[in-house]
Specification:
Length: about 325
């Protein structure tokens, strides 16, 4: 099926993920009450409230007189896009984008943007460090993974215990930055949620695009435009998009709540031309996705007439989606 990337009523193969609109105007008091009740009764159920919003948003600062005119804003505050600050570091053709410390939780809990460089998902290294010292008793996803691996091992191939490392509390708090995926940074920058600086100078969206396009992450500007168009389309339809390199794909698509709530529902790749992917690669990728029980979505982006020297006009692009599954003649 065909649809425009910038069209809100686009009809593709993937359904709309059940999330609120990207930038809703007003929050609801029932959300706050429901979050408190859910967290008090069932902590896991409360994740649907913690990771509810698809974008970083904060309560808008209104003039004091406005609360006299419309006092309902005290109970139903108007939400506005947050201004996330980040820093771009560049070494030769390598690029890193690190978010400021104060915005790490806001990024992860509102759209699952970024990743802790020492953690599997959100930045939990400091909490696990305090847990090892006996200062915290919270259970993290890394603890569950370690216990699962211990159950699988027979004890013969385990590594010896590591030596102790002396780290003071001040150093521990600065050891794990949150690194933004370049596509995350471009998406937030285009929506006005991200202010990225390099060398003390604030970068415009076009300058950030140019820095990512010149990096070693993407071989050509066409590849970056293709991946970003597909990424933006999925995000605009409410999906949480994360890198899919673990399964040999470009993206992993999560439903409401992102990786904190459930496994990814789809794996996806993006290409600018029909038939650009060799059949050997497609067979291998479909086999890997089938073993992981993830349907594979192949996205073809039409870049005809697009100036690749600057960020593309996404409303003018068209994309086709195909759902690829392995054919098994023995299965009815």
């Amino acid at each position: 099926m065909k649809h425009r990337v910038g069209n809100k009523q686009a009809a593709g193969i993937l359904p709309m993920s059940r999330q609120p609109a990207i930038l809703p105007r007003v929050g609801r008091l029932v959300d706050y009450i429901g979050a408190l009740l859910a967290l008090a009764s069932r902590p896991l159920r409360g994740l649907q409230w913690i990771y509810k919003l698809p974008l970083p948003r904060i309560a808008a600062k209104l003039a004091s007189m406005w609360y006299l005119v419309a006092p309902a804003n005290l109970l139903w505050p108007t939400l506005a896009p947050a201004k996330i600050k980040a820093t771009l570091y560049k070494e030769s053709r390598d690029v890193w984008i690190w978010a400021d410390k104060e915005h790490e939780a806001l990024l992860w809990q509102n759209g699952s943007f970024g990743k802790g460089v020492l953690s599997r998902a959100d930045a939990t290294w400091l909490g696990r460090y305090k847990q090892a010292l006996g200062a915290a008793k919270q259970l993290f996803i890394e603890d569950l993974t370690a216990k699962r691996r211990e159950r699988r091992q027979d004890g013969s191939g385990r590594l010896g215990s590591m030596g102790s490392v002396d780290v003071c509390a001040g150093e521990a708090g600065r050891m794990e930055p949150v690194q933004l995926w370049p596509l995350d940074a471009l998406f937030l920058s285009e929506l006005g949620c991200l202010e990225c600086a390099a060398g003390g100078q604030l970068l415009s969206h076009a300058e950030l695009w140019q820095a990512v396009a010149e990096s070693s992450l993407y071989s050509t500007a066409e590849e970056l435009a293709t991946k970003y168009a597909a990424y933006f389309s999925f995000r605009a339809r409410g999906w949480t998009v994360k890198p899919g390199i673990k399964f040999g794909a470009d993206f992993l698509l999560y439903g409401r709540g992102g990786p904190a709530r459930s496994h990814s529902r789809y794996a996806a790749i993006a290409s600018a031309r029909h038939g650009a992917e060799p059949w050997q690669h497609m067979f291998a990728l479909s086999r890997v996705c089938a073993q992981a029980r993830k349907p594979l979505v192949v996205c073809y982006v039409d870049l005809a007439g697009t100036d690749l020297r600057r960020p593309p006009d996404l409303a003018q692009l068209r994309m086709q989606e195909f759902l690829v599954e392995r054919f098994n003649p023995n299965r009815k």
